[in-house]
Design goal:
The chain has helices spanning 16-27, 40-52, 67-81, 104-132, 144-147, 153-173, 191-194, 198-207, 216-227; strands spanning 7-10, 31-36, 56-61, 86-89, 135-140, 178-185, 238-241. It is an alpha/beta fold. The protein has a single domain, classed as 3-Layer(aba) Sandwich (Rossmann fold), CATH 3.40.50.720. A seven-stranded parallel sheet has the order 3-2-1-4-5-6-7, with helices on both faces.
Length: 247
């Protein structure tokens, strides 16, 4: 699953699952662009760790909810590296609240980053891949997008939307040799799940057949596989990475 000479863009690559994906792709030989919106220090730390390990990486600031910033990022990457081979749409936020307490701002913020952001990045990057007649795209969804979650209507809707986006894009771009897939992580041990109350974490663990929370590396390895030629005939799929929680 070597990715040498591949140029990879990972949105929201400065922390959690995104950081693990950046590190895994770089370890397999890709030159990785670590996108971030606000957390410059975290993104720089990820890039520095990759370089220290012998890999190639640089950071790129852009808010994926802004078409102007996304277009500028894609044009800049192509100007610097000449191509984009891999796109991982990982940028995502949460603003969890029950529906009756959720504001329109809470809804818009999550949908703009999680779903609109993936749409805008695809819209800007796909023409580059079409000219190359090759590319691999992985959208990072969530099992919550498949089963729903109380207090997460905005997040669930955004991740469910990614499923439809993935499958529709796969039908549009497959003939151009651009593969589009998605992963749906379950409860992964990151800063997003660290805020869960201990009793809630314990209740979740009891429902997971593998009896442990997932690690960011568990997701990163599947993403790296989907970006590689080993997955050359995998297209339009949504792969759950949840330890069997929602079989």
């Amino acid at each position: 699953m070597k990715l040498s000479e591949k140029i990879a863009l990972v949105t929201g690559g400065g922390r959690g699952i995104g950081a693990a994906i950046c590190e895994e792709l770089a370890a397999r030989g890709a030159t990785v662009v670590v996108n971030y919106s606000r957390s410059a220090e975290a993104a720089e730390a990820v890039a520095a760790a990759i370089v220290a390990a012998g890999g190639k990486a640089r950071t790129w600031q852009a808010d994926v909810a802004s078409i102007e910033q996304v277009d500028a990022m894609i044009k800049g990457i192509v100007a610097e590296f000449g191509r984009i081979d891999i796109l991982v749409n990982n940028a995502g936020i949460t603003r969890d609240k029950l529906l009756l307490r959720m504001s329109e701002e809470d809804w818009d913020a999550v949908l703009d980053t999680n779903l609109k952001g993936a749409f805008l990045t695809l819209k800007s990057a796909v023409p580059v891949m079409m000219k190359q007649r090759s590319g691999a795209i992985v959208n990072v969804g969530s099992v919550i997008g498949k089963v729903g979650g109380a207090g997460q209507i905005n997040y669930s809707a955004s991740k469910s939307g990614l499923v439809g986006l993935t499958k529709s894009a796969a039908k549009e771009f497959g003939s151009r040799n651009i593969r589009v897939n998605a992963v749906a992580p379950g409860f992964i041990d990151t800063d997003m799940t660290e805020v869960l109350k201990p009793e809630y974490r314990d209740a979740i663990l009891k429902q997971i057949p593998l009896a442990r929370m997932g690690a960011a590396a568990d997701v990163a390895k599947v993403v790296a596989f989907l970006c590689s030629e080993d997955a050359a005939y995998v297209h339009g799929e949504v792969i759950s990475i949840d330890g069997g929680l929602f079989m």
